[in-house]
């Protein structure tokens, strides 16, 4: 099967999208998006957690007019979700992030660009029109480089910095290791590096994305295991943009984030790709929401597959969610059109789920509408 389809009609369920994506692309990239780390216990727990909570709807409200939006740090999320930062999207489709950015722009869905992309953050921005965008930072071991990327994001109209804190090292992704598959080694995530003035200063001549020296250098500086809470003060000195931490799972870390003046949290376990055996995002959410008490926005990802998942996350304390793997399957199947279809179906499902919960706006979705399955 080729990955550009006209008159496209993609399946509505993620399990069928997964199958179609598996038939559309090579095993290496498919496994890279599909798999988790270790024995994939956390990957599975993310889905199970959503099944262990039940919505208790309330009826006979007029739900003929509905508003699925939420506002987070001055950014409107028209459907209470954004696209999660997903790196190296050219391994799924030649247009990579440019295709998913255009699909997000079509529906006004906020886009979070990863550090480790196949196209530069500036080029991605040109495909987003007026659509809100945030930049996800892997805080480099080379601090000057990290600051340079933040400055570039600011200049290109990104309105928040999302610092991913769960990736001090890359997780032990057994299926990728068994396949010997590494997008880094193929030079697929170099765009933000080879277009960065600070990174280029480290080379005598301008290198290309798959130069051995570039790949080695990125491998050396991509993640920073020595990062601490105190380092947040540095980034705050260099940008006026709001800062969110992605990957928070412990309520004590949520509390610390408040102390350090962070502006928002993304409760996430990286889709079960980092520490296998760690708590699912949805289970981590209620204690974090208790600590935060509405003083900063909380978002959630890892396991969002349907509209009812958005309602559950919202009822347990998240203002909005991030959609990850499902849009990547759409990208793998049919590029921009594939992502568009996945977004269209998800947006409809959120709206239907809101109405069937008996609510006319996301602000009405609260704890009273959810119970744990006995
Ligand atoms: C292929 C792939 C690449 C990813 N790349 C990044 C990344 O560059 N930065 C980041 O913070 N998270 C990254 N993530 C994690 C996502 O942002 C998100 O946390 C995860 O996909 C949520 O899990 P779910 O897709 O199973 O719902 C990636 C996830 C996948 C599947």
Automatic annotation (TrEMBL):
Q: Report the residue ranges that make up the FMN hydroxy acid dehydrogenase domain in this protein.
A: 6-374
Provide the cofactor list for this protein. FMN
Enumerate the GO terms in the molecular function aspect: (S)-2-hydroxy-acid oxidase activity; FMN binding
- In which domain of life is the source organism classified? Bacteria
Q: Keywords on this record?
A: Flavoprotein, FMN, Oxidoreductase
Keyword Flavoprotein attributed? yes
Q: Does the keyword Oxidoreductase apply?
A: yes
**Residues reported to bind FMN:** 85-87, 114, 136, 164, 246, 268, 301-305, 324-325
User: What's a Pfam family this protein contains?
Assistant: FMN_dh
Top class in the EC scheme: oxidoreductase
Give the residues the record marks as binding glyoxylate. 32, 138, 173, 270, 273
Family statement drawn from the similarity comment of this UniProt entry: Belongs to the FMN-dependent alpha-hydroxy acid dehydrogenase family.
The name this protein carries in UniProt is L-lactate oxidase
- The organism named in the record is Psychrobacillus soli
């Amino acid at each position: 099967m080729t990955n550009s389809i006209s008159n496209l009609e993609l399946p509505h369920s993620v399990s069928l999208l997964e199958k179609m994506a598996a038939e559309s692309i090579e095993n290496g990239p498919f496994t890279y998006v599909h798999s988790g780390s270790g024995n994939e216990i956390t990957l599975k727990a993310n889905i199970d957690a959503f099944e262990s909570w039940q919505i208790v709807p309330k009826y006979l409200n007029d739900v003929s007019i509905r508003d699925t939006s939420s506002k987070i740090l001055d950014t409107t999320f028209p459907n209470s979700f954004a696209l999660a930062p997903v790196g190296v999207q050219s391994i799924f489709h030649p247009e990579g992030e440019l295709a998913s950015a255009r699909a997000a722009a079509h529906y006004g869905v906020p886009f979070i660009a990863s550090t480790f992309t196949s196209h530069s953050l500036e080029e991605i921005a040109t495909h987003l029109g007026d659509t809100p965008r945030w930049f996800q930072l892997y805080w480099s071991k080379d601090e000057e480089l990290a600051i340079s990327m933040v400055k570039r994001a600011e200049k290109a109209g990104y309105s928040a910095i999302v610092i991913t804190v769960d990736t001090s090292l890359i997780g032990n992704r057994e299926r990728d290791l068994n396949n010997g598959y590494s997008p880094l080694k193929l030079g697929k995530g170099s765009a933000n590096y080879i277009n960065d003035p600070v990174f280029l200063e480290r080379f005598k001549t301008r290198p290309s994305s798959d130069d051995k020296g570039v790949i080695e250098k990125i491998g050396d500086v991509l993640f920073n295991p020595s990062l601490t809470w105190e380092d947040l003060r540095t980034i705050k000195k260099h940008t006026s943009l709001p800062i969110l931490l992605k990957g928070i799972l412990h309520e004590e870390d949520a509390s610390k984030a408040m102390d350090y003046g962070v502006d928002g949290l993304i409760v996430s376990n990286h889709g079960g790709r980092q520490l296998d055996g760690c708590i699912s995002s949805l289970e981590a959410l209620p204690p974090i929401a208790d600590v935060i008490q509405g003083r900063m926005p909380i978002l959630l990802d890892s396991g969002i597959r349907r509209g009812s998942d958005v309602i559950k996350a919202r009822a347990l304390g998240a203002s909005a969610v991030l959609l990850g793997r499902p849009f990547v399957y759409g990208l793998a199947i049919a590029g921009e059109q594939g992502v568009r279809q996945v977004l269209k179906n998800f947006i409809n499902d959120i709206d239907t789920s809101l109405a069937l919960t008996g609510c006319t706006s996301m602000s009405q979705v609260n704890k009273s509408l959810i119970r744990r399955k006995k």
